[in-house]
């Protein structure tokens, strides 16, 4: 009986000691999952914008491609695909804006023109910065062949 009296509350103390690291791990996994989801969203939006540009002529459609990359539509309406994403983060390169790297690229089957869309300088903002800090993603770039 005396031993039982001394053990009162021990389980609550043990739970409190174990719960802190478990919560930190759970929040960390959740935040890195959110970061991966946003990175994947940016990569897909850049791919969609580059695919759109492959069907346009040189120098055409860069504004619409930026809208596709940021908002997922051609009219720049609605909310951005990722929080804080703006058209300032999007760079479009084609044979007009970057002639030395994107015009008349030699391949085994002839010459092609390239289009590139890059998401640069996007910062992921963590909801729990003491567990997973804010981070700036590296440039996400997609290059495709332009159909003329």
From TrEMBL:
Domain TadE-like as annotated: residue spans: 9-51
Superkingdom, taxonomy of origin: Bacteria
Tagged with keyword Membrane: yes
Transmembrane segment boundaries: 12-30
Keywords tagged on the record: Membrane, Transmembrane, Transmembrane helix
Protein name: Pilus assembly protein
Organism: Aromatoleum buckelii
Lineage: Bacteria, Pseudomonadati, Pseudomonadota, Betaproteobacteria, Rhodocyclales
């Amino acid at each position: 009986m005396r031993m039982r009296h001394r053990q009162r509350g021990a389980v609550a103390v043990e739970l409190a000691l174990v719960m802190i690291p478990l919560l930190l791990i759970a929040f960390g996994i959740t935040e890195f999952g959110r970061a991966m989801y946003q990175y994947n969203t940016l990569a897909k939006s850049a791919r969609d914008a580059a695919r759109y540009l492959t069907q346009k002529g040189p120098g055409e459609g860069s504004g619409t491609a930026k809208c596709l990359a940021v908002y997922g539509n051609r009219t720049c309406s609605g909310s951005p695909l990722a929080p804080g994403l703006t058209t300032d983060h999007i760079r479009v390169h084609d044979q007009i804006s970057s002639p030395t790297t994107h015009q008349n690229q030699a391949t085994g089957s002839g010459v092609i023109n390239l289009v590139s869309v890059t998401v640069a300088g996007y910062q992921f903002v963590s909801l729990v910065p003491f567990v997973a800090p804010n981070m700036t993603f590296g440039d996400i770039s997609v290059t495709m062949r332009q159909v003329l």
